[in-house]
Amino acid sequence: MGKVTSTPLFFQSKLLCFSLLYLSTSLFLALYTSLSKTKCLFRTSPFEPLQTPLFTYPSSYGEHKYATSTVRSTCSSPVFFSDYWKVLKEIQDSCNASSSSSSLSPSVLRYMQGKANSFGGNFSTLERFSHFEYETSVTEIPCGFFKDFPISDSDRIAMENCKGVVVVSAIFNDHDKIRQPNGLGSKTLENICFFMFIDDTTLKGLEYHKLVSEKSPDTKIGAWRIVKVLSKDLYENPAMNGVIPKYLVHRLFPNAKYSIWVDAKLQLMVDPLLLIHGLVVSENVDMAISKHPFYMHTMEEAMATSRWKKWWDVDGLKKQMETYCELGLQPWSPSKLPYPSDVPDSALILRKHDLKSNLFSCLLFNELEAFNPRDQLAFAYVRDLMRPKMKVNMFEVEVFEQIAVEYRHNLKHGSGTGTGTGGSWTKRTKIASPDLDLGYGNSCRCQKYLLEMWGESHV
C-alpha cells in the first residue's frame, strides 16, 4: 500500500484561511493608517541631519527635563518639505536678490524717531490706531526704540551682519533652559544666525552651571549667540522685555530677510531653512503661525486670561477688549477666511521681513506696550484692521507639535508672563469690577461681539 498523507486540519478549512488573511490585512491597514495620520511632516528626498551634538551640558542643568506630552494623534494638513539643497540655494538666492535692491525701496517702512520715557513711546489709542492704514513710503510708523536697547556694541554689529535667516529666542529671570535646535542640515549653521537674548538673572544661572564665563565678552552656547540685555533700563515686567526681540526682530536685525521666533520653552526639531521654505516661501505668505489648540475667538482667550490669572490686571483686560470692540474687532466667522482663526499659538512665529509683516509687528508691539504682553489678545485686532492686509499661514496644531518639543518653565510661581520670556515678576491680581463677569457680558461695547460669537441666548 502506498503511504497515505493527510492535510493538517489547520489547512482544511478554507473559511479559516480566508479569515486569517482578512484579519492580517486589516491589522496592517489599520497600523499603516494610524502611523500615516500622526506623520505631519514629509520630505521629498532623503535628509541626513547633523549627528554630532551642538553642545554638551552638565548633568545638573537638566535641559531636557519636563517635556509636555503631545495632544493630537491625527494630522489633517501635512506639510511637505522640498530637498534640503534645493531649499538652501533658493533661500540664498532670495536673500541675495533682496540685498541688492535699494534700501530706498517703497516697500521699506520708515520709523518714527525721537526720545520718550518708555521704549515704545506710550502712544494713545487714537494715535496708535491712526497708523493702521499705511499710506505712503514717507509715512513714519512708531515702532519702539524711543529709548536705547542696551546691548554691547559687538552684539549690535553681529546682529547687523546677519543677512539671511535669523532664529531668535529670549530668557528673562532664568525662566527657561537654553535648548539646542535639532535636525539641522550640514550647511545650516553657515547660513543661519541663532541669537538668544538674556538678562542678568539668567546670566547668573548660566554662570552657576558653568555654561558661560563672566570674563568672555562674546558668548556662544552651541548654536546660540548669547546677548545680554540690561533690562533694568527697559520695562519692569520681564515678559514685556521679551516682547522686544519677539516682535521688533526686523529692527534688531535690519539686514535679515526671514526670521523665526522660538519661545525658550520650545526646542526646534526641524531645520529652520526647511521651515521657512515649507511654511512661508512655498505658501507665498508674510507670516506663518500655529492656530491655538483650543480657542478661535479673541474673547475666549481674554476670558481664559482672566479666569486663569495669566495677567494680573483684570480690569485692564476688560478695558482692552472694550477698546478693541469699539474700534471694530469682530468675532471669527467664515467671512474672515482665509484666516481660519483669530487666536494663534504665538510660541513659534515665522516671518518674511517685508512691509506687511514689519507693519504688523510694529502695530502689535504698540498694543502690547499700551495694555499687556499677552500678544494673542491683540493679534486679530491688528491683523484684521491694518491696511494693507497681511497674508498669514495659520497652520494646524499637530504640525506645530511635530516642529517643536515643548517643555515646562523653570519656575512654577508668578504671573504676568505670557511670552515664555519671564517668570518671577509678580503682582497681586486686581479684583475685577462687578460688571466684568469674566465674559464681559454686561459691557455695552462688547455686547454685539458676544451676540455674534455665542448667539443671543448664551449672553
Features:
459 residues, alpha/beta, 8-stranded mixed sheet, two-stranded parallel sheet, globular
Describe the structure.
- This protein is of the alpha/beta class.
- The protein has one domain (48-97, 107-410, 435-454).
- The protein is 36% helix and 13% strand.
- It is built from 16 helices and 14 strands.
- Strands 7-8-6-5-9-12-11-13 form an 8-stranded mixed beta sheet, sandwiched between helices. Strands 1-2 form a two-stranded parallel sheet.
- Helix 6 links the parallel strand 5 (165-171) and strand 6 (192-198).
- The longest helix has 25 residues, at 14-38.
- The chain starts with 8 loop residues before the first helix and ends in a 5-residue tail after the last helix.
- The model is unreliable at 25-38, 412-425 and 431-441 (pLDDT under 50).
- It holds the Pfam family TOD1_MUCI70.
- InterPro entries: TOD1_MUCI70, TOD1_MUCI70_glycTrfase_dom.
- This is TOD1/MUCI70 glycosyltransferase-like domain-containing protein.
- Residues 114-409 form the TOD1/MUCI70 glycosyltransferase-like domain.
Q: In what order do the strands lie side by side in the largest sheet? A: 7-8-6-5-9-12-11-13
Beta-strand share of residues: 5-15%
Task: Summarize the main sheet.
Answer: 8 strands, mixed
Output mean pLDDT.
84
So what's the overall shape?
Answer: globular
**Rg calculated over all Cα atoms:** 25 Å
N to C succession of SSEs: HHEEHEHEHEHEHEEHHEEHEHHEHHEHEH
Could you say how many structural domains there are in total? 1
Count of alpha and pi helical runs: 16
Say how many strands there are: 14
Low-confidence stretches: 25-38, 412-425, 431-441
Structural class: alpha/beta
Cα distance spanning the termini: 94 Å
Helix fraction, binned, reads: 25-40%
